[in-house]
Amino acid sequence: MAGDSHAAPRPNLGYGWNMFARPIPTLVAAGMLVAAVSTGVASDRGPSEPGLNASLKRVVPQLEDSVLDAAVTSVTCARAAGELTESSASLLAIIDFSRPSTEERLWVIDLATQEVLFHEHVSHGQGTGGLEAQRFSNTPNSHQSSLGLFRTAETYHGKHGYSLRLDGLESGVNDRARERAIVIHGAHYASESFIDEHGWLGRSWGCPAVDSAVSQRLIDTLKDGAAVFAYYPDETWLSQSVYLSCTP
After folding, report:
1. Which CATH architecture has domain 17-234?
2. What residue ranges do the domains of the chain occupy?
3. Least confident of 1-10, 14-23, 99-108, 143-152
4. What is the pTM of this model?
5. Is the dihedral of CA 126, 129, 133, 138 positive or negative?
6. How many of the other CB atoms lie within 10 Å of CB of 60?
7. Residue 8 neighbours by CB under 8 Å, 6+ apart
8. N or C: less crowded end of the chain, CB within 10 Å?
């Protein structure tokens, strides 16, 4: 990943992916997700791992298979490692930073009902790129977005209004998110009308900002322990992420 290196050890969880034989709501009850990738998980009352992926791909056909597969893998690993708790709802939010900002590249999916609750525009950082994101960082004042798995935390009212704090779970990749004040908030520049007027979506200082018209509903849906996963096909991050490479 451009900027910061990732040197955290990979967790040895002592099992393969097929051990996750539980209903979908229980599987992701560990935490709601805001992510940019996903992968399948087996269920004893639902589809098998390939079956779950196939059903989710019908729900979000716009997502590339690699993005969807990576998101589920990351969340499954984090839940098994105890990073996501049973108290959160079974929601998955995916941000696909490989798409230009003029596209709606944020999805929030209810895995229990397999419904898309939100499909929205989302900004990337000023230092990340122009129309398309290209660089990512964990460094304060870089004004760049970060990749990887986050967990949502508390809400607050700040200079951008109602906002949602994010805690990065990947050491060296996004674990300085709180220090950097990387939060979900509403912004006029993250709207379709801004694109219509300027031909591009506005950029943040690294926050995944969304349209002010939907920000409160989206934040209230994801607050208090949801998972956030931001994706980009960065080979270094993909090969080194602890949550994408859980091994027996």
Report:
1. Beta Barrel (2.40)
2. 17-234
3. 14-23
4. 0.80
5. negative
6. 19
7. 170, 171, 172, 242
8. C
